[in-house]
Amino acid sequence: MVAVAPLLLVVSPAAASRALAAVGSGDPTVGFTAVRLSESNFVLQRPYDVPGGDRYKFHGGVRQLWVLSSDKPHDPHSNTSPRTEIRMTGYDYSSGVWQFEGYGYVPSGTTGVSVMQVFGAGESATTLMLHVYDGALRYYDRQVVEDNIYDRWFRLNVVHDVDASTVAVFVDGVERLRVPGRGGDSHYFKFGVYAQNHASICMESRWKGIRILRAGGAAPKSANSILAI
């Protein structure tokens, strides 16, 4: 795997305020600009002892990811649970207001699994994890974010304001969760399936229309750009 230098951006308070005001207007992407993504930004993490094609397919614009509760971790030196996830690279961030957008689908029977993460925090590994338990999307294994997500496409938007230390989750354009951030000096987005407590034998999620957006102006020309907005 090729190491990607973290992206350092400086976003003015005015730009952040405009983006957050737009979030309250009904479309969480208003006031944000999508960054440029290529397939190199989508890095697959899957059980280390199986080929990628045995746990991941990308066809017709849909990314299908699945994992078994009996699978190995993604690295032979890791003690973590089985996962098949996409780690978004090239746009690690440490400040400003950033957003993940994607259309997700979780087939019935999948449970005990994380389907999306904001990785990086102060005293924990993640700022946000969205779990699925028995058809409900939850904030970790706590409050319900959205009921009845099985067997349907849902639009997911996650807005992370690093400087204000807040995270907002929108499902189908409606804000369903707003929680404090968890600190940390570097963050990135992940999606797929990552086994949690009481996982089903097979866990699967499907994704399309993935975008990363940031508050303010045009996307940077390279992963090493330093921008002032």
From TrEMBL:
All residue ranges annotated as the Alginate lyase domain in the record: 40-212
Superkingdom assignment: Eukaryota
Keyword Cytoplasm: no
Signal peptide: 1-16
Sorted UniProt keywords: Signal
Pfam families membership: Alginate_lyase2 (PF08787)
Keyword field contains Signal: yes
Record-linked InterPro entries: Alginate_lyase_2, ConA-like_dom_sf
Protein name as it appears in the record: Citrate-binding protein-like
Species: Panicum miliaceum
